[in-house]
Amino acid sequence: MRVAFAGTPEFARQALDALIGAGHRIVCVLTQPDRPSGRGMKRVPSSVKQAAIEAGIPVLQPRSLRLDGKYPEDARDAEAALRDLAPDVMVVAAYGLILPRWVLDLPRHGCLNIHASLLPRWRGAAPIQRAIEAGDAVSGVTIMQMDAGLDTGDMLHRVERPLTADETGASLHDGLAADGARAIVDVLAWLAAGHAPVPVPQPEAGVCYADKLQKSESALDFSRSAGELARRVRAFDPFPGTTMPLPGMDQPVKVWAARALPATGVIGNGALAPGAIVAMGPDGIDVATADGVLRVTALQKPGGRRQPVAEFMRSYRG
Questions:
Q1: How many whole angstroms separate alpha carbon 300 and alpha carbon 215?
Q2: Is 107 marked within a binding site?
Q3: What pLDDT score was predicted for residue 317?
Q4: 35 C-beta neighbours (distance < 10 Å), count
Q5: Model pLDDT, residue 181
Q6: Per the database record, which ranges form the Formyl transferase C-terminal domain (predicted)?
Q7: Residue 117 is assigned to a ligand binding site
Q8: Nearest CA to 292 among 266, 317, 311?
C-alpha cells in the first residue's frame, strides 16, 4: 500500500520501521520541525526524521497543517505534496500536530492512529504515564480510525498488555511501541487483502483523559499516600522525573525508585507529619506520607547520576 506516515518520537519510529520492513511503500513522512536540544541547543531531527532519511523517504515538516492557521503556507505546501503523492492511507503515531479535516479525508482509507491505551480509557497526551500513575492492571494499544475529535474515532484493533508491579514509564513505552508496530502492520495487511476490520464505536462508559505531563508535577507531595507516590515515581521515569528535598541539600534530589511500606503505629497516629524523614540507611530513605511510608531506593543529586541509595548515602552529609 502507498502509506503516508506522520509521527515524531521513538514510539513512532518503531512503527515506521515495521511498515518499511513489511514492504509498504512509504510515500512520505510528516514529522515535527527540528528542535533545539542539548547544552549547545543545536537543532536535532526527530527519531522519525532520522529513520526516514536513512530509508530515503521524503520528509515534510510543516509547522501547522491548518490552512487558516498561523502558518498557512506550510499547510498549503503539505496539502499539495500529499495530493500529488495520493497515499492510500496515513498512519499517525505521536505526531504532535492536529490533523484538520482535509488531511483526514485525503487518503482513500483515511488516517489510522496508533494510540497507547485501551480506548476509551486514557484519551489524550500522556496515556502511558497516567495508566501507571492510576494503578491500572492492564494497558495496551488501539488502532483507531481518526475523526475530528480528540482520540474519539472508531476502534479497528486492540492489543492488551498487563502492567507489571515494577512497570515504569520507560518500560511500558517500549512494550507498547513494539505492540503498536505489530498491530499497525496487521491492520494494513488486512486492508490490503480486502478484509478491513469492522469499525467499533468507542463506548461512552469508561472515558477518561490523560493530561499532558507538567514539570510542576515532579515534586513529590507527601500529603498523598505512599502507594500513589511510588506509582508516580515509576510513571514519571524517565520524564519528567520526580523530586524531593533532603536536609543539607540546597536543591531537591531526583527520585528514581521507591516503594510503599505499610504505615507504622507512630505514623498512623499522626505523630510524624507527611514529608518527615523516618529513617535513613543503605536500604533506603523512609519518608512519612499521609498513608504509609515511602522508601526511596535510588536517587540523583543535581548534576550527578542515578545511584542506588547505599551508594548515595556514602557521600551524603545531611
A1: 17
A2: no
A3: 79
A4: 12
A5: 98
A6: 212-317
A7: yes
A8: 266
Count Cβ atoms within 10 A of the Cβ of residue 194 and give its class: 0-12 exposed, 13-18 middle, 19 or more buried: exposed
Extract the C-alpha cell encoding 76.
498549503
Residues shown for the chain:
318
Grid cell digits, residue 200: 467499533
Q: Strand 284-288 relative to strand 293-300: parallel, antiparallel, unpaired? A: antiparallel
User: 139: phi > 0 → left, psi -120 to 50 → alpha, else beta; which?
Assistant: beta
**In degrees rounded to 5, what are phi and psi of residue 55?**
-90, 0
Nearest to 94 by CA among 9, 35, 28, 32: 9
The position carrying cell 498561523 is: 70
Tell me whether residue 119 is annotated as binding: yes
Domains 2-210 and 215-315 share a fold: no
Instruction: Map out the domains of the chain as residue ranges.
Output: 2-210, 215-315
Residue 120 assigned to a binding site: yes
Q: Does domain 2-210 have CATH number 3.40.50.2300?
A: no
Which residues does the chain have with pLDDT short of 50? 265-269
If you classify domain 215-315 with CATH, what class do you get?
alpha beta
Q: Cα(312)–Cα(8) distance, rounded to whole angstroms?
A: 36
Report the candidate in 127, 108, 105 with the shortest Cα–Cα distance to residue 116.
127
Whole-number pLDDT of residue 271: 65
Report yes or no: 238 and 155 within 8 Å, Cβ to Cβ.
no
- Whether the predicted model's global pTM rises above the 0.90 cut: yes
